[in-house]
Q: What sequence folds into this?
């Protein structure tokens, strides 16, 4: 006779039955699954032959690119030789065009000047010769190209041989490497000077020759006293520079115009407003205040103090003698001595 439905023996038999069924299902799952993860694993079919062929094709393409470019070491050394072009030969322009123009000028050069053409004791024949030379518009640019070409030949000893004995494809690659090295060097120098110039101006904002350009209005403190306010702090990038910045605009303005006129003054030459509105050309002359000693030039005698700015000296030193030497304003600061290193001999026990 079976036990009643609600008896304890019936409930225990049902628990044993569920336990056996769950253990059987777990054992089946463990036997069918290779790992502990209960999610099903889908097999991936890999075509190893196709993958190998694809890898082989890619390697062949990379090797072909290297053959077209030439040896990496040669290209790198050529770029290194071209890095001095922008500093010593020519700042802008295509190197191939400069060399071509110089070689063309050598076919029919103008006789060189063997005396000081700016002397006050020139003879009538010498003055007539200079008038004729200056009348030929193409002479001076071609002479500059020739001078740049001579500097290039000094920087790259095998330049002339490379251009005359190489195949056209090799010459093109040679020009490309030189141009890249020259442009990369110029970009590095410009970036270096851009960051340093902002730091120099920030450090000089209390100096009278820089503070005169800052027209930021003062504010009143709690005691009713006027407190000076400064313009925006210059960062390493060129984000807040230009004529919108008072100090930068004052340094970029030319000596022919007065940057310091207050804005409430009605004047015919209102430099700040005209520059910022575009009514006045920023590049109308080369005589910007940033190039002058003390950043103030004389429009009636524009040569006095020109190209004697301390920022020009620092910019030159940051490129040619290193950033450490650019901390000093004087151009006659001696180079820092290399620290002596001593090696101690250690005896083995």
A:
């Amino acid at each position: 006779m079976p036990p009643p439905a609600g008896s304890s023996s019936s409930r225990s038999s049902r628990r044993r039955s569920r336990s056996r069924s769950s253990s059987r299902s777990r054992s089946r799952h463990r036997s069918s699954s290779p790992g502990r993860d209960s999610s099903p694993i889908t097999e991936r079919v890999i075509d190893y032959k196709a993958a190998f062929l694809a890898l082989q094709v890619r390697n062949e393409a990379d090797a072909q690119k290297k053959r077209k470019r030439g040896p990496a070491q040669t290209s790198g050394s050529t770029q290194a030789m071209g890095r001095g072009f922008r500093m010593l030969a020519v700042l802008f322009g295509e190197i191939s065009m400069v060399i071509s123009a110089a070689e063309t000028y050598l076919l029919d050069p103008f006789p060189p000047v063997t005396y000081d053409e700016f002397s006050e004791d020139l003879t009538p024949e010498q003055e007539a010769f200079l008038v004729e030379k200056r009348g030929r518009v193409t002479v001076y640019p071609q002479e500059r190209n020739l001078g740049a070409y001579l500097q290039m030949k000094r920087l790259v000893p095998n330049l002339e041989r490379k251009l005359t004995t190489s195949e056209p494809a090799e010459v093109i690659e040679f020009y490309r490497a030189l141009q890249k090295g020259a442009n990369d060097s110029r970009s590095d120098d410009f970036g270096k000077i851009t960051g340093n110039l902002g730091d120099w101006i920030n450090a000089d904002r209390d100096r009278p020759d820089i503070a005169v350009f800052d027209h930021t209005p003062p504010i009143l403190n709690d005691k009713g006293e006027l407190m000076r306010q400064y313009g925006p702090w210059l960062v390493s990038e060129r984000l807040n520079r230009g004529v919108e910045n008072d100090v930068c605009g004052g340094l970029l303005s030319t000596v022919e115009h007065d940057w310091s006129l207050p804005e409430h003054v009605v004047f015919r030459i209102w430099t700040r407003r005209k520059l910022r509105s575009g009514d006045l050309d920023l590049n109308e002359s080369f005589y910007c205040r940033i190039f002058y000693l003390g950043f103030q030039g004389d429009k009636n005698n524009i040569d006095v103090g020109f190209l004697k700015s301390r920022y020009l000296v620092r910019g030159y030193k940051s490129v040619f003698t290193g950033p450490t030497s650019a901390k000093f304003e004087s151009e006659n600061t001696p180079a820092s001595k290399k620290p002596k290193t001593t090696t101690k001999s250690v005896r083995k026990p």
About this structure: DSSP finds 13 helices and two strands in the chain. The chain has two domains: 48-184, 204-327. The first helix runs from residue 8 to 32. Residues 48-184 form one domain.
